[in-house]
Write a structure and sequence with these properties.
With 1460 residues, this protein is an alpha+beta fold. 34% of the residues lie in helices and 21% in strands. The strands form 15 sheets. The protein has a five-stranded mixed beta sheet with strand order 42-43-44-45-49, covered by helices on one side. A four-stranded antiparallel beta sheet has the order 1-57-56-55, with no helix packed on it. Helix 13 (918-934) runs antiparallel to helix 14 (938-947), helix 21 packs antiparallel against helix 22 and helix 27 packs antiparallel against helix 28 (1205-1215). The longest helix has 33 residues, at 1237-1269. It is elongated. Mean pLDDT is 82; it is low at 203-219, 256-265, 727-800, 1272-1304 and 1351-1382.
């Protein structure tokens, strides 16, 4: 259909948007179209397009199977997959299995019916061409960037994701993931399978591999996969092992070739292509457009070779997106590449040289023009911010083009070659810039200092006119550059001095023609080739012809009724003179008019002539005209292009259609006739293409009669009917509703305009190919209009659909919507009022039926109109409008009063309130403050109070709404530091913050208010270690000594609980007065480290001191403590002041310790025990032996009474390594001597417990030896069963009691200490009291149940044995009440007797108890069987004590074997 063509630029950032089949047909996705290009080693030619997608094409692939190579498939962001026949350019079928934008597609090289696609949500779909079936898989919830089918296994597909993951899936197993290939760190741009079906080729290079196991490659069949990623690396993967075997990092190459536009931000795209038949060679893109051939069998710099190194300028200037290769019939292998530089290149893979380059276009083709001097030099103005200059007559390179981008930075919308100077090209841009390029030099363009405010639509070279023409004789240029832009202004630029100001030709037109009225905005201009006259088209459809150089108006052509888009004079070379004055014009109407102005030009009239009839009328287009050109080879032959998407050739004189070209998709914008071939025309348009076509080869002669022509005719009929209807309709009072006066006509225009906009705005011209997501349109080529209806921007279209704002003057406005006859009568009435001394009868401007005339009469009439309008607004409830009307009329106070009453004061009203005086302003501010408070805008209200100097009121307002932060900031900024209100604010804020749990912020408030005590207390409320530490430090700094000590102790206690000994010491070390507590923690840490602890595994120690470790066995723990105190803390017998032992002991006595119970954890028990050991060492330093032994007794008693037998025994060993309590220290030679009763009793008790633990230790060791020699029988019924309840550690005692051993070591301690009769009597009495108390409690419980009726007969029988009765007969013969009375009485009597016995015993016996004497007797008698060292006297004493005090049933049973 067309000869040569420049296609649209291929889409950017797509992994596979181009492909080539075996016959050399290349398919490229550009925008929503696929261009088909025949390629060979010498040239290329665009042969057609595949049109149908509604959004950007994201992928394209040919079927590579014999007999089906003409079939292809494409994917798009519209979510569809389309199958095409490339021979017939037709759609075969469409699949819509995806719900999201499709990002990749590939036709399987193995299965001729399988097509695989993936979308941005990670869904993979298999399409079967022959059946139309589809199957969906979801291997990974990630965005798919690329995918490729294996050329060796039909079911194997590699998928690359945005996050760097590559997945190999088996589509025959429902998309099962075979391998997940991890290694890349960023987007996977491309994947390529090796053409070799095995992995043997690269396996011979083990030094290049990263993950090889050394096994034979033949163990598992696989194929190599290459991947390119945004992380600047390529990897070769083994599909058999699922691992990377080679990694290649892109080489950094210095930029070569011509300069590029620095304004285009460039990122990396790494595409990889594995050519067929080259298993060891891989092609990849690189930084900045270079292409690299990799040799996978080499290493280092020898591994890669650059393309295009034989000569400069072969490489791309921007990153490369896609590559595809084909082997031609002459056995040459070609590689086609697409790039961001908007060029497609063909490479010879044998020589790596570029064969040819095909330029592409990245925007609308707005303008094209052939140079009048350089033959065949065609300039293109494109929407991708570049100018292309194409030498169309060259024979070596059919697409010999140069691109110019410097200094443009906007869409190029107009071009004009200089009529005489070769290579001088003027251009205009979308942002109003005008400049001149010298295309045969490398200099940047000259830019005019005078900018248009809107898009430049037309450029024209013509003779200078004043003021520039006054200096023409003194070397001024013979041509000026004229530019016409969207704001309706024509500027004259001096090409020799573009830095100077351009002149507006409207000034000359006004001065020459004595015009006072406003000129219509200009939309186009065209100089007659001889420079005598210029035609200027206007927005209202009028064409005016002016005579140069004065620009005297010759005639006005009033044929068009819409905006003029194109004006062209017939050329004057090789044509009859009667054709020289033909002027063709095109507008937003579809009709082209040609005017013959020969008589007017040759015989200029004295006054301007108005022409209303054309010379020729050319009808056929169905939409507006955008461009035209006269044929330089024919007489009166014209070509026009239109929004109907066609180019039409006319025989003007015959008014006949010659040829119609329909090769573009979308509307056309520009056209020019070839200067060398009469049969060739060039056109450009919305589809981003420039096309060359021949007139004689077109199938059609007339434009298609499309839908727009039918709509236009229907619209014309509707308008005529509506006009007739309006004429017949009359309305009462002469007023008509607004919608009846021409509204259907305006509505029809809007509908047509909306259709045009929806068709024109669907694509962006610069960046639609730059991203898979099409951005919104930024510019349209809707010619010569800056009105709202003519706008091409979507936001303006949306504004048209929005509801109009309410009118300030609705009554007077409605009067302008009456019938046409009434509106014309208003003009007569107003003229009478303005120019007559007496106004017409019953006519008062501003009132009644003439209310709207108040706007055009005097001020009093305007005030009357305002009053009427106010009444209408009040009735409608529009009080805000009434306020503004009063403002406009000068009643400021009334306006403010009304707004105050309505609660509708605003910042604007408040800003103008001072004009009414200070009092009014002050009242208005106060009213506005109340209004703002109701709207909860308290900060704004307080700020307004400050404006009238009411600071305290502003502070109270903020405080009352709990905006303390802002209130404090205000007070500190405006009032003195000692202001009382500041402290109140801090205190109130602190209380609120404390209530809400924000303790740190509350503490800062208390500190600012001077309440340091409260600050420390509130921080401590959090009760964690950091808070307590901070609170203690704060209290110490603030001088609150007592509080600081209390908080430090709390913090240290928590740290000790967490086993953070170093932290605890650090907290206490900050205060000298806490030295004694540091000594206590030192002792506690030492005891914790030296004593066994079953909780140590569950709670490990956080930190401890290096000195906290067990010492030598013969050194007592109190010796270690004393030495440590002296070394680390400076406390000794000679210490004075606050370090003296007396002061420290006095302070430590104030620390209370609770009564030991079995429920206290061992850690806490050790802490209390260490407290008494600390007191004991301090008493030692004071030589107070009595207090020393009592504190040592308490140290051991805490662990013993809490039930920790083993720990108590170990502590006794640490305190008395020699088992002698009188020896306090051998290192310091301390022997205890007691003269008082209590210390002596404490020493005996402590000695007894030391021997007691030693006794058990010897018994256990003997039992272990005995069991090793004589294992116990299966059924052991020894005396241990009875003694089980008597042992302190029951389980140990039960285990130890067994058969007698043959021998035992002799006792090495005085066991008689354990056999104290006083303590035996006391213990027996205490046991009796406990038994009686238990029985009394059981009887009370039973009695309460009987009284409550809770017992039945069964329960009574069960409880009967617990009663205390002598015989069953006695219990049966007596009644329940008598039996209960007797038992209670007898038990009470016994209880009294036992309590009296306890009272008679010495206090020291009860205060310092001994181990259970009966238990010790049993153990000694057991030992006597195997130990001859237990003397007869000791055995006899033990037996006597058992007989006398072993009355308990279990003890009595256990002692029977020892008593006769």
């Amino acid at each position: 259909m067309h000869e040569r063509s420049l296609p649209a630029s291929p889409n950017w950032y797509c992994s596979r948007c181009s492909d080539v089949n075996e016959s050399g047909l290349l398919g490229v996705g550009a925008k929503n179209i696929i261009f088909l290009i025949d390629v060979s080693a010498s040239s290329c030619r665009v042969t057609g397009e595949l049109v149908g997608h509604k959004d950007l094409v994201s992928g394209f692939s040919f079927c590579q199977h014999a007999g089906q190579s003409h079939l292809c498939v494409s994917s798009s962001n519209d979510g569809t997959i389309r199958f095409w026949d490339s021979d017939n350019r037709t759609l075969i079928k469409e699949h819509a299995a995806h719900q999201n934008s499709v990002t990749a597609v590939h036709w399987s090289p193995v299965d001729k019916n399988l097509v695989v696609s993936g979308d941005e949500k990670g869904i993979v779909v298999c399409h079967w061409y022959n059946t139309g079936d589809t199957a969906s898989f979801f291997p990974e919830p990630r965005t798919i960037f690329c995918l490729t089918c294996s050329p060796h296994t039909w079911s194997l597909v590699a998928v690359g994701y945005k996050d760097g993951m590559i997945v190999l899936i088996d589509v025959s197993k429902k998309g099962e993931v075979m391998h997940r290939l991890r290694g890349h760190e960023d987007e996977i741009h491309s994947l390529a399978w090796s053409p070799s079906a095995s992995e043997d080729v690269l396996y011979s290079r083990p030094e290049d591999m990263e993950a090889t196991s050394g096994a034979s490659a033949g163990d598992e069949k696989g194929c190599y996969l290459a991947s390119g990623s945004k992380d600047q690396t390529m990897r070769i993967w083994s599909s058999a092992k699922g691992k990377s075997v080679m990694t290649m990092k892109l080489p950094y190459l210095k930029k070569r070739g011509s300069a590029v536009d620095p304004g285009v931000k460039e990122r990396l795209w790494l595409h990889v292509h594995w050519p067929k038949g080259r298993p060891t060679q891989l092609v990849s893109s690189c930084f900045g457009g270079e292409m690299v051939m990799w040799d996978l069998t080499r290493t280092g710099k020898q591994r890669w070779t650059l393309f295009g190194t034989s000569s400069e300028g072969q490489n791309h200037n921007r990153i490369v997106f896609n590559m595809s290769s084909v082997r031609m019939q002459d056995d040459r292998e070609l590689l086609i590449s697409t790039s961001m530089d908007r060029e497609m290149k063909c490479w010879d893979l044998a020589s790596l040289d570029c064969c040819w380059t095909l330029p592409t276009l990245g925007g609308f083709v707005y303008a094209l023009a052939f140079s009048p001097v350089g033959a065949g030099c065609l300039a293109l103005g494109v929407g991708d911010n570049m100018i292309r200059v194409w030498n169309t007559l060259t024979t070596q390179n059919q697409y010999d083009t140069r691109s110019f981008w410097q200094g443009i930075k906007s869409k190029v919308t107009a071009l004009a070659w200089h009529p005489q100077k070769e290579g001088s090209l003027s251009f205009g841009t979308d942002d109003g810039k005008v400049g001149i390029y010298e295309v045969f030099s490398n200099r940047p363009p000259q830019i005019s200092s005078s900018y248009h405010r809107k898009t430049v639509y037309t450029l024209a070279w013509g003779p200078p006119v004043p003021p520039m023409s006054f200096g023409a004789a003194s070397g001024k240029p013979s041509f000026s550059l004229y530019s016409c832009a969207g704001e309706g202004i024509i500027l004259q630029h001096d090409p020799s001095k573009l830095s100077g100001d351009a002149s507006d030709v409207d000034k000359l037109i006004r001065d020459t023609n004595n015009i006072k009225h406003k000129l219509s905005p200009h939309t186009d201009l065209s100089w007659k080739p001889d420079g005598k006259v210029v035609a200027i088209g206007n927005e209202d459809g009028c064409i005016e012809v002016y005579e140069a150089p004065s620009l005297r108006l010759l005639c006005s052509i009033q044929q068009h009724h819409k905006i003029i888009n194109a004006l062209r004079w017939h050329h004057d070379h090789n044509s009859p003179p009667e054709l020289h004055c033909l002027l063709a014009s095109g507008s937003s109407n579809a009709t082209v008019y040609v005017h013959d102005l020969r008589s007017i030009i040759e015989n200029p009239p004295e006054s301007p002539v108005v022409l209303t009839e054309p010379y020729r009328r050319l009808t056929g287009h169905t939409s507006k005209i955008t461009g035209m050109a006269w044929s330089p080879h024919h007489e009166a032959r014209l070509v026009t292009v239109s929004y109907d998407g066609t180019a039409q050739v006319w025989d003007v004189l015959q008014e006949a259609s010659v040829s119609n070209y329909r090769g573009h998709v979308g509307y056309l914008l520009c056209v020019d006739w070839s200067p060398d071939d009469p049969d060739v025309i060039w056109t450009g348009g919305k589809d981003f293409t420039l096309q060359e076509w021949k007139v004689s080869k077109q199938e059609f002669t007339k434009p298609p009669k499309g839908k727009k022509m039918v709509d236009l005719k229907e619209k014309m009929k509707t308008n005529s009917k509506q006009k007739k209807k309006n004429k017949k309709t009359s309305w009462a009072g002469g007023a008509a509703p607004p919608e009846t006066n021409g509204e259907p006509v305006r509505g029809g225009e809007k509908v047509v305009t909306g259709q045009e906009m929806s068709g024109e705005d669907e694509e962006d011209e610069v960046s639609s190919t730059n991203s898979p997501v099409p951005p919104s349109a930024t510019f349209e080529m809707q010619r010569k209009s800056f009105s709202a209806v003519k706008s091409k921007d979507k936001p303006d279209l949306n504004l048209l659909k929005k509801k109009k704002p309410r009118s300030m003057l609705p009554l007077s406005t409605s009067m302008d919507h009456r019938p046409k006859e009434d509106l014309l009568q208003d003009c007569i009435t107003l003229a009478s009022v303005k120019h007559s001394a007496a106004p017409p009868p019953r006519c008062v401007p501003g009132q009644g039926e003439h209310i709207h005339l108040g706007l055009f009469s005097d001020r009093q009439a305007l005030y009357r109109m305002f009053e009427a309008e106010e009444e209408g607004h009040v009735e409608a409830g529009h009080f805000d409008t009434v306020v503004y009307l009063r403002l406009w009329s000068g009643d400021l106070e009334g306006a403010l009063q009304l707004a105050t009453e309505r609660g509708e004061l605003s910042d604007h009203l408040l800003s103008i309130a001072p004009m009414a005086g200070f009092e009014v302003w002050s009242r208005t501010v106060e009213a506005f403050v109340k209004q703002l408070c109701l709207q909860e805008q308290y900060l704004k209200a307080a700020s307004h109070l400050l404006s009238i100097n009411k600071l305290y009121e502003a502070v109270d307002l903020l405080r009352s709404h709990k905006l303390y932060r802002e209130a404090i900031a205000l007070v500190k900024a405006r009032l003195p530091a000692e202001e009382p209100v500041l402290k109140e604010l801090y205190t109130c804020w602190a209380a609120t913050l404390e209530k809400d749990g924000h303790f740190s912020a509350a503490a800062k408030c208390y500190l600012a208010a001077g309440a340091s005590f409260d600050a420390a207390k509130v921080i401590a409320r959090k009760n964690d270690v950091p808070s307590l530490r901070t609170a203690a430090g704060l209290a110490r700094i603030s001088g609150e000594v007592a509080l600081a000590q209390s908080l430090a102790l709390r913090c240290a206690k928590d740290l000790v609980t967490a086993q953070d000994w170093i932290g605890a010491q650090e907290v206490l070390s900050s205060q000298e007065s806490l030295l004694v507590h540091r000594l206590h923690l030192c002792v506690a840490e030492l005891m914790t480290e030296m004593l066994p602890d079953s909780q140590a595994a569950s709670q490990p120690c956080v930190s401890s001191h290096p000195w906290a470790s067990p010492g030598e066995p013969h050194i007592s723990i109190q010796d270690q403590v004393r030495d440590l105190w002296e070394k680390k803390f400076g406390v000794s017998q000679n210490s004075e002041g606050h370090r003296s032992a007396e002061a420290l002991l006095q302070e430590l006595k104030s620390v209370e310790s609770p009564t030991p119970t079995a429920n206290i954890p061992l850690r806490q028990v050790q802490l209390y025990s260490s407290l008494h050991l600390t007191r004991a060492v301090l008493s030692w330093l004071l030589d107070d032996d009595g207090q020393l032994i009592k504190e040592l007794w308490q140290t051991v008693a805490w662990l013993r009474d809490a039930g920790h037998f083993h720990v108590s025994a170990e502590l006794c060993r640490l305190l008395f390594p020699d088992n002698d309590v009188s020896v306090c220290s051998r290192k310091h030679s301390k022997i205890l001597h007691h003269t008082e009763e209590q210390p002596e009793a404490a020493a005996k008790s402590l000695q007894a417990f030391v021997h007691y633990h030693h006794l058990y230790k010897q018994w256990w060791s003997n039992s272990i030896q005995t069991r090793s020699r004589h294992p116990p029988p299966a059924a052991d019924s020894g005396p241990g069963d009875e003694a089980e309840g008597k042992a302190v550690n029951g389980d140990a005692a039960e285990e130890s009691l067994g058969p007698a051993a043959q021998s035992c070591d002799e006792l090495d301690f005085d066991a008689s200490v354990l056999l104290s009769e006083h303590h035996a009597a006391c213990q027996a009495t205490q046991r009796s009291v406990s038994e009686i108390q238990e029985r009394l409690a059981a009887m009370v419980l039973k009695h309460s149940r009987v009284q409550g009726g809770q017992l039945d007969s069964g329960e009574k029988e069960a409880d009967a044995p617990t009663q205390i009765s002598t015989t069953r007969e006695t219990a049966d013969s007596q009644g329940p009440e008598e039996q209960q009375e007797e038992n209670l009485f007898s038990l009470s009597t016994k209880m009294s007797e036992h309590q009296k016995q306890l009272a008679d015993l010495p206090d020291t016996v009860k205060m310092f108890p001994h181990p259970d004497v009966v238990e010790c007797c049993l153990v000694l008698l057991h030992l006597s069987k195997s130990s001859p060292s237990v003397s007869e006297s000791l055995q006899q004493k033990a037996k006597d004590l058992l007989r006398k005090y072993g009355t308990n049933a279990s003890v009595f049973k256990a002692s029977q074997q020892f008593l006769p």
